[in-house]
Design goal:
alpha+beta, 18 strands, about 35% helix
Amino acid sequence: MTDRNAAVLSGLAGIRSDLEDLYRDLHRHPELGLREHRTAKKASDALRELGYEVTDGIGGTGVIGVLANGDGPTVMARADMDALPVREQTGLPYASTVTLTGPDGTEQPVMHACGHDVHVTALLGCAQLMTRAKDAWRGTFVALFQPSEENGDGAQAMIDDGLTARAPRPDVVLAQHVLPYPAGYVGTRPGSFLSAADSLRVTVHGRGAHGSMPQAAVDPVVMAAMIVVRLQTIVSRELAAITPAVVTVGSIHAGTGPNVIPDSAVIELNVRTYDDATRSQVLKAIERIVRTESEASGSPKAPEIERTAAFPPTVNDEETTRRVAEAFAAHFGDDAHTIDLQTASEDMSEIPQAFGVPFTYWGIGGIDAELYAEAAKKGTIAQDVPVNHSPAFAPVVQPTLDTGVSAMTVAALAWLGS
């Protein structure tokens, strides 16, 4: 295994500069979900030049490249491509100044604030190394570039567009994400890793009246306030203390003035859970609380509960993760770790589930190691280390890219034996 890894990774030094240029280019030119036309073309052009059999336009902008290299397992490696509507504040010479027209017709700043530019670059680097060292491995390597992860609909869009019929069925699916850990860090976790996420919009109905005549009204503002308070008891009183979950009310809208009791109020909330049982329990509790508080308030109309977004939990296969963790320990040594549960969410798991195959998803660090160490020493990591989706989030170029390329390559080679 060590010799095989060394044979394939020996080509990294020769492509490092090109990968760094590619990363800066992708960072400078971010694109929103399902509009990643430039990024997808970069990926598909590079794969074709490397000799991959390429299919593009899957689910809109998705790309797959297939490199068959004799008998052996099939490994699928996935990278997401989309950016976020965030105005970059990194001050980098390659910072994004891109603006795009949003769904509402307004101009939005766009930034790779989540590190998907790292993911694309790392996977293309891995794809190049696999091509250059075909004597060192056997099997089929599939590079998949997915659109619209941030919206939670990109994986399903590819599946709905026939992904499982248009790509070889893999034996395993691999994916990684750059996170606010020191650059050079790699972290695996068997079982639950990323949370499920559900966003809900709740509309409760009252009866409007003059603010001075509350007896003539059913006040939806008070109703909404009672619901918000009651929702906080789900995690604190209905779940075991060792069961992680988050229920956050992020928005309440009601009324147009201080002296008018409105007809309705809208509550928007987000739920994070780590397994299907807890997810179902929390969502049912939300519905129960909303309906019973509405009834207790004398609402003239039943509330409306709409799920506006949903991400599945990311639960890594135990045996697959053990295999990758052992390969990482052998290659990265003390930089290989067991990573904590993450409250972020992903739709990547829908791809291996569509194929009916196991997967593992790990994290790599992207923060300057000295900055991270100083913040840890002062106990100010939360304040001083930019996190994903922050306008200040920008992984350091190295050793982040080397780590991403190496991690994906080492993981793939754990299956693609010669």
